[in-house]
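Support request from a user on the community tier.

User writes: "When I paste my structure tokens into the form, the page sometimes reloads and wipes my input. The last time it worked, I copied everything first. Here is what I submitted, just in case something in the input itself triggers the reload:"
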């Protein structure tokens, strides 16, 4: 049996406090670090992922970002490269850092770092955390959110990205 994933817990200033098992972080909704990647193709469409039903929070929800929890001993930059590969099978891209944010929502107490990539290649669902992926035009995202259960943190990230101006120039 493999050892449970260990997660960095941080304070309100995003300074490391301790390392705990992922189950403890989820149970106690502890403040942790996570990455978020907006994947946009050359047509200006945004990648949407449907989370698997085996996810520990928000199973079956749609997510307009790729990414995940930063593990102990891992930087944001290392995590984003790992997560892009694990979730959608993409390698050899150079994620552009956009902004950091702090969110405390039900089951989501996080210091997030947001990245952006432009990608037109094949998508391969590698680790089983994602059931399906598809691109939608950014102009129809609001309608999509009204008709589907969407991750609150991913939704925040995408709406802020749209509001502040898309960064793919």
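"...and here is what came back when it finally went through:"
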């Amino acid at each position: 049996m493999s050892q449970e994933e260990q997660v960095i817990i941080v304070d309100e200033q995003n300074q490391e406090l301790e390392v705990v098992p992922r189950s403890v972080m989820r149970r106690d909704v502890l403040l942790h670090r996570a990455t978020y990647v907006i994947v946009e193709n050359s047509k200006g469409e945004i990648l949407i992922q449907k989370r698997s039903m085996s996810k520990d929070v928000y199973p079956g929800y749609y997510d307009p970002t790729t990414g995940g929890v930063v593990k102990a001993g891992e930087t944001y930059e290392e995590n984003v490269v790992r997560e892009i590969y694990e979730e959608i099978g993409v390698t050899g891209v150079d994620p552009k850092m956009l902004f950091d944010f702090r969110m405390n929502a039900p089951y989501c107490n996080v210091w997030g770092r947001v990245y952006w990539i432009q990608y037109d290649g094949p998508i391969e669902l590698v680790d089983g955390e994602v059931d399906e992926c598809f691109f939608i035009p950014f102009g129809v995202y609001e309608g999509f959110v009204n008709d589907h259960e969407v991750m609150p943190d991913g939704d925040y990230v995408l709406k802020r990205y749209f509001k502040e101006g898309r960064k793919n120039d």
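Agent notes: The reload is a front-end session timeout and is unrelated to the input. Residues 6-164 form a domain with the Nucleoside Triphosphate Pyrophosphohydrolase fold (CATH 3.90.79.10). The chain has one domain: 6-164. Escalated to web team.
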